[in-house]
Amino acid sequence: MKRFITMLMLLVASGFSQAEVTKVPLNFILPDGQDAMLRGQWDKISFPLTILENQQANSLKVTLKLAHSGNIDTATLWLQLGEKPLANIQLQPRTESQQVVATLTPDLLQRYGNVMTLSVRHQLPPSLSLTQQRMEASEAVTQVLTEQSFYEIDYHYTREQPSLSSFAALMRSGQLHQESIMLTNLLETNSDTALSVAGLLVQGWTLRSGTDAYQFQLNQAQDSENHVAPSSKVNLIFGLPESILNASVLPKNFTAAINGPYLGFHFAPEKQQWVFVVSGRNNLELMQAAQFFANPANLLPNQSYALVEAKDHQAQAVLASNKQYPLNTFTLQQAFGDSPLVLPMMMPANTLVNKGDTAHINLMLSHPKVQPGEAAMVLRVNGEYANSMPLRSSYWRNAQHYRLSFPMEKLHAGLNTVSIELYGPEQMSEFGQGKNYQPFIAQIDSTSTLKMGAWVNYYSVNEQKLHADQLLFTTTEQGAKTQLSLNYDQHSDLAAVWELLSHVSLQARKPMEQLLITTSPTAKRPIQLVFNVGNTAIPNSLSAPKSDNMMDELRHQLLASMVESSGASTVTTAATPAGQYGSFTPTWQTVAPSDSLARLSTDGAGWHKIEFNARDEASLNKDMAIYLSDKSPQTQGTIALATPSHESDVQLARAGFITHPYSLPLILFALLAPLALMVQRALEAKK
Known about the structure:
Elements: H1 2-17, E1 19-25, E2 37-39, E3 42-48, E4 55-69, E5 74-81, E6 84-91, E7 98-104, E8 115-123, H2 130-137, E9 141-144, E10 150-157, H3 164-173, E11 181-185, H4 192-209, E12 216-220, E13 234-238, H5 241-247, H6 252-255, E14 262-268, E15 273-279, H7 283-294, E16 305-307, E17 324-326, E18 335-336, E19 341-347, E20 351-352, E21 358-366, E22 376-381, E23 384-390, E24 399-407, E25 414-423, E26 427-431, E27 434-438, E28 442-444, E29 449-451, E30 456-460, E31 464-465, E32 482-488, H8 495-508, E33 516-518, E34 527-533, H9 550-566, E35 572-573, E36 599-602, E37 608-614, H10 617-629, E38 638-641, H11 646-659, H12 663-686
Parallel strand pairs: 11-12, 11-13, 13-15, 32-33, 32-34, 34-37, 35-38
Antiparallel strand pairs: 1-10, 2-9, 3-8, 4-7, 4-9, 4-10, 5-6, 5-8, 14-15, 14-16, 17-29, 18-28, 19-25, 20-30, 21-24, 21-28, 21-29, 22-23, 22-25, 26-27, 30-38, 31-36, 36-37
Helix pairs in contact: 4-7, 4-8, 8-10, 9-11
């Protein structure tokens, strides 16, 4: 009997210690806004190697696929784990890619917080002159091929029950990148609350994981015998306490704690399932818990379950036209040189700039003294060259002022990355029989600023097809003006809806906590996204009568001039239309697949209707994947000025003068001629 019990205990223990291997591509774990390009003389990137609370690592292998470009003689790579140097590798750049593999044993790994840093130093051919080296250095690039680079962790599960903070680490780790995320609804099927909570969970997972590559499926548990899909490795479950208890998805002591907005996390080793539960005593508390999860600024607590309460967080600064910002608004960097100065900035949706408008970065820098032509800065916007400037020295002051400009037209709606690379003489120190090279470093003064150029805001009107990135305007005011209306003729897991919602929320880098998702066709909010799937109709678009206001007509003409001066294509302008939407009708109209998604109709009260039409769900899923992956340049249809203001009128007037340069002297003559005539008559009267 004792022998039998011993064998049984060993069998149970082996269930916890069974080894598993997970491979995570690097593109799932790079920090937000961080590209995989190592540019210039010196650069570096860092990425986390996540080991979860209930994982014991046996080994961890990092594989990096590298490609080089530019006139590089030698590339020196340093691999570092936290503060521990791992390797120093000399590479001879060739046309084909090269691979670096680092295997980490358990004694090198910490329990939490493992971060690997890859640093590079590009050495140029010594035959180049000093000026040539500065120019060639800006084109020296080592690219990490993120889809072919990965870390591979060999681990076994422990008996430790993970916490909610471990769930946050799981989402960010990329270990589930091959899994579909199941949304299990324990509320009434397709109720407004159920659909809106599911949308919040999709946004929370997307923003906390940092990628929109995951696929989501809605499981209506009320319509099936299984409350939790057994084939799914991760389940986000939401419902009221009674349904959570009946579904047996959490231990009873977890469920007993639901006394308010509630989050719980549990790992079932026998099923290899991760279960995350959102609940509350009523629909309001359930919605509050989901809103807490949707906002990544809300840190998940270090316990298996908790009652949560939303907190006020400082919202990410949305840039305003013609405003100046301290540089520390965008970055915590106080020095650069070993890596570029990186300024992530969020541009609002639907902006139009005049040709030649620029933004200015005013840098106050302290750096080692340099000779003319010995050091320089290179400015890039979203990875593209925008400007450069040589560095200088002064004998009577330590800090130098530099003013770098870049065209406003290089910025797009959503997240932009402005980077400044520094090139200068390396600092060398000798020790023993060797030499140590350090990058040229510049210190950034707190008085450094960014001055944005000016723009006007517009909105699209009449009937046209919107590019996926043009949907960013739907996220304003936390989605309080937006609703999704779902008109499916059959039961659906709504995969295409979640795919679109994930894409838009990631583009905005913020959740739409007030978004309404409903099956009602009635427009309750000014922005309505309608999914017509099956035997449904495409309502006729509304025509827009022009405004009789002379000032409005002048603004529209000047807006057309601004479009012309900016070089935009296929854009027209219109006066604000008037009218209201029709309702759903029961007949199908044939449209080309390319025109079936994101069809816009507008009315004069500022209401927008954007339709996504498909004959069946399979067609919608296919067309949605094509629509969201379309990287062709945005083409705008008919647009109108969003909100008239003095600032926008000034920009419109500038556009008119840029398009018609001879109009300025004519206007001046028209203004001065009557004044001159009045002066002449006054002088004649005195005679």
